[in-house]
């Protein structure tokens, strides 16, 4: 195995462990908060604060960690981030205070922003024309972690509510030791860039991203598509409960299918799809497929018909890695950290706002009967967002930049 392959495998394993750790907590965190809260209202308020805090810290620290990695190298920032994440899990496992639990989420949100550094590392070691496939592999690792995390977390949580945090801490800290021993630095000193306030300031970093030639439209497509995806993710379970009276196992099965499709498309098929279509056409096909699929989700009145639509929408999983590859090519070697950090920061804003928009709409229509087409309003919005993203992408690609 070459040094590049070994490094890439470590990065993929790191992303998998990070997402697995997040997934392990999903089934138990609400109950853990409830065990320390004094009332249901207090439980809801604290849980909302924990979720919002995590997203805000991701937004603030993604550009900072990316800029630090551009200045000091990817390796130390990755290792320190993983150590911080492990420490936050230890605190979560031991604390009986909601305030300390909130503090641990502050730390995990800040150090969990290392996804941007992982993406920058991959950009460092991967030729420009192969980055779409490499970013697809990261997406696959993310998908597999997302699939198995909640399942394993639920099993561990049935033994003890704090056990998922203990396991997450052990995995993170073990990965720090493994990385210390095997992970080489990917960014040599001569390719590093100085720290400036503009690069570490989230708003300045976003402005820097917008200044890259030919990137603004791609960033708009990225945000629109991500917004639609996160609305879908955060309303799917409620929607299927309201309209089809699904039980948890049915939603678990559907989410498992989605996660495995993501892993297969991004981890196995991405290279073949890129060779067949190229990034431009793949983005267009994926956005068009998503727009049609979301429309169908909102109109379908028989639940079993959801599965053919899910399977037919496989090209949608190729959109994000293709966009990342095109944006990465527009940035210099010493800008990969801040660029990937800015993208991750934008994603964090979307993660905070999309659930608010989606659940607000669903709350307005959730009482309608399953045969009333208006109950699918949330997904109609998602379809419209993907159509707008498709129009922006089509206009941008017709103007010819950036080139495939």
Explain what you see:
With 404 residues, the chain is mainly alpha-helical. The chain has a single domain, classed as MFS general substrate transporter like domains (Growth Hormone, Chain: A), CATH 1.20.1250. Helix content is 80%, strand content 0%. The radius of gyration is 21 Å and the shape is globular. The two termini are 29 Å apart. The model has no long low-confidence stretch (mean pLDDT 85).
Ordered list of secondary-structure elements with their pairings:
Blueprint (H helix, E strand, L loop, with lengths): L2 H23 L3 H8 L3 H33 L1 H21 L3 H14 L3 H11 L5 H29 L3 H20 L14 H4 L1 H10 L4 H29 L3 H52 L6 H7 L6 H11 L6 H30 L11 H22 L6
Rg calculated over all Cα atoms:
21 Å
Number of domains: 1
Low-pLDDT sequence parts: none
Task: Compute the number of strand runs.
Answer: 0
CATH level 3 topology: Growth Hormone, Chain: A
List the secondary-structure elements in sequence, H or E. HHHHHHHHHHHHHHHH
Helix content: over 70%
Q: CATH homologous superfamily name? A: MFS general substrate transporter like domains
Largest sheet: none
CA(first)-CA(last) distance: 29 Å
Number of helical regions: 16
DSSP strand content: under 5%
| 3D shape | globular
Q: Keywords, please?
A:
404 residues; mainly alpha; Growth Hormone, Chain: A; 16 helices; 0% strand
Summarize the structure.
It contains 16 helices and no strands. The protein has 404 residues and is mainly alpha-helical. The protein has one domain: Growth Hormone, Chain: A, CATH 1.20.1250.
């Amino acid at each position: 195995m070459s040094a590049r392959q070994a490094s890439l495998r470590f990065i993929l394993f790191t992303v998998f462990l990070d997402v697995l750790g997040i997934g392990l907590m999903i089934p138990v965190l609400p109950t853990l908060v409830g065990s320390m809260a004094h009332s249901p209202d207090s439980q809801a308020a604290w849980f909302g604060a924990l979720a919002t805090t995590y997203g805000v810290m991701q937004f603030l620290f993604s550009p900072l960690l990316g800029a630090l990695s551009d200045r000091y190298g990817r390796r130390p920032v990755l290792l320190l981030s993983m150590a911080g994440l492990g420490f936050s899990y230890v605190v979560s496992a031991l604390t009986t205070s909601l305030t300390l639990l909130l503090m641990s989420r502050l730390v995990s949100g800040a150090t969990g922003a290392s996804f941007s550094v992982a993406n920058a590392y991959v950009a460092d070691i991967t030729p420009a024309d192969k980055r779409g496939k490499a970013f697809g592999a990261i997406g696959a690792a993310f998908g597999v972690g997302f699939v198995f995390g909640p399942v394993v977390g639920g099993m561990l949580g049935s033994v003890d509510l704090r056990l998922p945090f203990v396991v997450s801490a052990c995995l993170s800290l073990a990965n720090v030791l493994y990385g210390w021993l095997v992970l080489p630095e990917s960014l040599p000193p001569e390719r590093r860039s100085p720290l400036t306030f503009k690069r570490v300031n989230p708003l300045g970093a976003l402005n820097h991203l917008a200044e890259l030639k030919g990137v603004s439209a791609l960033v708009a497509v990225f945000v629109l598509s991500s917004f639609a995806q996160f609305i879908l993710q955060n309303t799917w379970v409620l929607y299927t409960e309201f309209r089809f009276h699904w039980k948890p196992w049915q939603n678990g099965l559907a989410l498992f299918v989605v996660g495995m499709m993501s892993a297969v498309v991004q981890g196995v098929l991405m290279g073949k799809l890129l060779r067949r279509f190229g990034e431009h056409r793949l983005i267009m096909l994926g956005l068009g497929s998503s727009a049609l699929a979301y429309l169908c989700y909102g109109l379908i009145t028989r639940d079993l018909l959801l599965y053919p639509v899910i399977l037919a929408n496989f090209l949608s999983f190729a959109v994000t890695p293709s966009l990342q590859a095109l944006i990465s090519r527009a940035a210099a070697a010493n800008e990969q950290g801040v660029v990937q950090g800015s993208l991750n920061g934008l994603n964090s804003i979307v993660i905070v706002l999309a659930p608010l928009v989606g659940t607000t709409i669903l709350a307005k229509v959730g009482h309608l009967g399953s045969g009333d087409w208006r109950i699918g309003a949330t997904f109609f919005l998602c379809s419209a967002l993907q159509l707008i993203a498709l129009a922006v992408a089509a206009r941008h690609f017709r103007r010819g930049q950036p080139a495939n």
